[in-house]
TrEMBL record:
<dbReference type="InterPro" id="IPR011009">
    <property type="entry name" value="Kinase-like_dom_sf"/>
</dbReference>
<protein>
    <recommendedName>
        <fullName>Protein kinase domain-containing protein</fullName>
    </recommendedName>
</protein>
<keyword id="KW-0547">Nucleotide-binding</keyword>
<keyword id="KW-0067">ATP-binding</keyword>
<dbReference type="GO" id="GO:0004672">
    <property type="term" value="F:protein kinase activity"/>
</dbReference>
<dbReference type="InterPro" id="IPR017441">
    <property type="entry name" value="Protein_kinase_ATP_BS"/>
</dbReference>
<feature type="binding site">
    <location>
        <position position="44"/>
    </location>
    <ligand>
        <name>ATP</name>
    </ligand>
</feature>
<dbReference type="InterPro" id="IPR050235">
    <property type="entry name" value="CK1_Ser-Thr_kinase"/>
</dbReference>
<dbReference type="GO" id="GO:0005524">
    <property type="term" value="F:ATP binding"/>
</dbReference>
<dbReference type="InterPro" id="IPR000719">
    <property type="entry name" value="Prot_kinase_dom"/>
</dbReference>
<feature type="domain" description="Protein kinase">
    <location>
        <begin position="15"/>
        <end position="105"/>
    </location>
</feature>
Length: 105
């Protein structure tokens, strides 16, 4: 479910939503900025009707991966529970696959 008008919304009076960066089994994910540190973050909203357990499942699944994400904030915001965490960059394996498994010509 796309959240209309998410761009430039402040979550927890600190995290500014910038753009949508993904959608999949874990729902929508937005890139944003921590307005206090200027760091990029990932912002994942889920409807309150789904309960906080939905985001707990997401966090548990992601935290077992290659990069262990650092949660910066979790809580209710308007009609959503929101999980804000560091924005993970592509892994070396992701880059290798993106370059057709060749780093040099």
């Amino acid at each position: 479910m796309e959240i209309e008008g998410m761009k430039d919304i402040l979550v927890n009076k600190r995290y500014r939503v910038d753009r949508r960066i993904g959608e999949g089994g874990f729902g929508l994910v937005y890139a944003g900025i921590d307005t206090k540190t200027e760091e990029e973050v990932a912002i994942k909203p889920t409807p309150i009707r789904d309960g906080p357990e939905a985001l707990q499942y997401t966090y548990d699944a992601l935290s077992g991966g290659v990069g262990i994400l650092r949660v910066q904030w979790f809580g209710p915001e308007c009609d959503f529970y929101v999980l804000v965490h560091e924005l993970l960059r592509p892994s070396l394996e992701d880059l290798f696959n993106y370059c057709d498994q060749r780093f040099s010509p």
